[in-house]
Every structure is written in C-alpha cells, then in structure tokens.
Design goal:
Layout lengths: L5 E3 L1 E2 L21 E2 L2 E2 L9 E8 L3 E9 L18 E7 L14 E7 L6 E5 L7 H4 L5 E6 L3 E9 H4 L11 E11 L7 E6 L2 H4 L13 E4 L10 H4 L2 E3 L6 E5 L4 E7 L5 E8 L4 E2 L6 E9 L2 E9 L1
Parallel strand pairs: 1-14, 2-5
Antiparallel strand pairs: 3-5, 4-13, 5-6, 6-11, 7-8, 7-12, 8-9, 10-11, 12-13, 12-14, 15-16, 16-19, 17-18, 17-20, 20-21
C-alpha cells in the first residue's frame, strides 16, 4: 500500500464557465491531475482521465477530461448507472471518519454518466443513496459534453450543501477526496471493463470509495478559506501609490489575481499577474480605488489612489 495521496488545491475569484468546454483563456483551471491508479480487475486500457479542482468563496469547481472511444451510457441496455460510462466524485468534508469508514453527514459520492438521459446519482450522509439535496440546490451546476473519442464534465458544488448537517468542529483546512472514472466498452450490463482513480484506496484501486471513506485521499484547502495570511503576504504593497499609469505589487513572488473596484464595489479590472509585473491603469479616472490581491494563501485588501 502506498502513502495516502495528498493534493493542494487553489482559490479562484473567477468562477469557470460551466459548459463542458475547457477554455484556457477564460476559465481559471490550473494544471490537471492524472487519474493514474488503475483497478487491478480492469481488462482494457483504452481510457485515460484527468481532473482539476478549485475552490471559490462558496463552492468547489471541478473539471474532468476523459479519453474514451467506446461511448456506452444507454439506460435500457445497462440498468445500473455504475455500469455505464461515468465519473464518480467522492467527498468526506468531515475528516474524522467512522471506524468502519461509513458515510455520515458531509460524506458524498456523486456519479454522473457520460451522455444520453442525463443522470446524477450517488450516495450521501448515512448511506441514504440520494444526492437530491445537492442536485436540487440552486448553486449546483453540471455540464457534460461528449464526442466520439472523449468527454468533458464540469461541476459547481456548493459548500453549504456539502457540509450541511456536519458538526461545528471542521477547521476548513482539509477534506478527504477521490475521483473515479468507469468505462463500459461492450454496451452490456456487465461491460464495465476499465476503472481509474486519483487515490483508489492508497493505490490499490479496489473501488472502496462507494462505501468506505477511509479509502479517500487528503486535500488541503488554501489559507484564504481559513481567513489567515502568511507574514509574507501581509507585507505586500502597491508601488507606486499614488499611481499614474502603471503599478505593481511589491514583494509578490508568485501568481496572484488582482481585482480592482471603485468605491461602490463595481469591478473595473481583474487580472492574473506573476511576481511584480506591471499592471496598467492609465484609463482610470483620478480617485480612490480598492484592490484585492488574491493568492492561494489568502486575500490582501488595499487602497489605491489614482493620480
């Protein structure tokens, strides 16, 4: 058995467009993670997959890209949804697992099939086998677009629903998670011949997530979700200030999203910057503005004077 997989995810102030298309310009997706753990009982190898997960102020955003040239999701020919081409997302927001790994409040299995009669089903809470509270939420969104050789799925999963009914002890620092993809290559009820995971029960790939939260990997949330800032981030400053045509963020060493608003909160500029690269504001009228500097470690709020 391998060590439990660990993943650091990032904060985004710009929600991706949930349309089943990965737009590298508009959408804020970062580097995708391969689903590299294979179920040892698999008998084919023509499917691969990768995923990306971000967190915003009130939701998770997920995207999956699956290479699969055998599309089989017919609900009549394959009665059980887990036997069709599908993805499964596993969350245990309450990281204190039951001794037997049983589901409880804050634990979810979300299965979404590839195409055909659109279907989201799965398991939540104490093995209720229903995710209706999630899919009926106004904050829930999903899109699945398929072609002859691949399909893409994108999700918005509201945090308030995923954590509903949990105790108040969650520190918003970690959660347990896994991702699985299944491929039916024959179109028959027993035609699921390939399955791949991110964690897969610490590399065993034995498909335990549907009933055992101990098999999930561990994900770390960005510090922004804890309303904390590192000392380094707290030392960031706008330079020069007042500003004429351009400014930069002094002491910023990595990637950040800059959000500039007027006194009424209207967003006038959002821009992803790397280090202290210049940020043009020559078109703005003279006056006072507010700036948020958003990194994976937190949000720094500042005032800027345009001269």
């Amino acid at each position: 058995m391998k060590e439990t997989p660990f993943l650091q995810i990032y904060y985004t102030s710009q929600p991706p467009i949930i349309d089943g298309f990965i737009d590298d310009v508009v959408d804020p997706w970062r580097q995708f993670v391969d689903l590299s753990v294979r179920n040892p009982n698999s008998t084919t190898s023509g499917m691969t997959g990768k995923f990306n997960i971000l967190v915003g102020s009130d939701s998770f955003y997920l995207a999956l890209i699956i290479q699969d040239a055998t599309a089989n999701s017919d609900t009549t020919a394959i009665p059980n949804s887990f036997g069709r081409d599908c993805t499964e997302i596993y969350f245990a927001m309450d990281t204190v697992t039951e001794k037997n790994g049983a589901y409880k409040a804050g634990c979810w299995q979300i299965r979404t099939q590839r195409e055909g009669v659109f279907l989201n089903d799965g398991n939540s809470g104490a093995n209720t086998w229903s995710i209706a509270t999630l899919t009926n939420s106004s904050g829930f969104k999903v899109a699945s677009v398929t072609s002859a050789t691949e399909y893409i799925q994108e999700f918005v999963l509201p945090l308030s629903v995923l954590t509903e009914g949990m105790g108040k002890g969650w520190d918003k620092k970690f959660f347990r998670f896994d991702m699985a993809v299944a491929d039916n290559t024959t179109g028959a009820p027993g035609g699921r011949t390939e399955q791949r995971f991110w964690c897969g029960n610490n590399g065993l790939g034995d498909d335990q997530g549907w009933n055992n939260t101990k098999s999930f990997g561990i994900v770390s949330l960005p510090v922004v979700c804890n309303s904390k800032l590192s000392k380094e981030r707290a030392n960031l400053r706008i330079f020069p200030n007042p500003v004429m045509d351009i400014f930069h963020i002094d002491k910023l060493k990595d990637i950040a999203t800059i959000c500039l608003t007027d006194l009424n909160g209207k967003v006038l500029l959002t821009k992803q910057v790397s280090g202290n690269e210049p940020i043009p504001v020559g078109s703005l009228s003279p006056g006072l503005y507010f700036i948020k500097i958003i990194t994976d470690e937190g949000i720094v709020k500042m005032k800027m004077v345009k001269g």
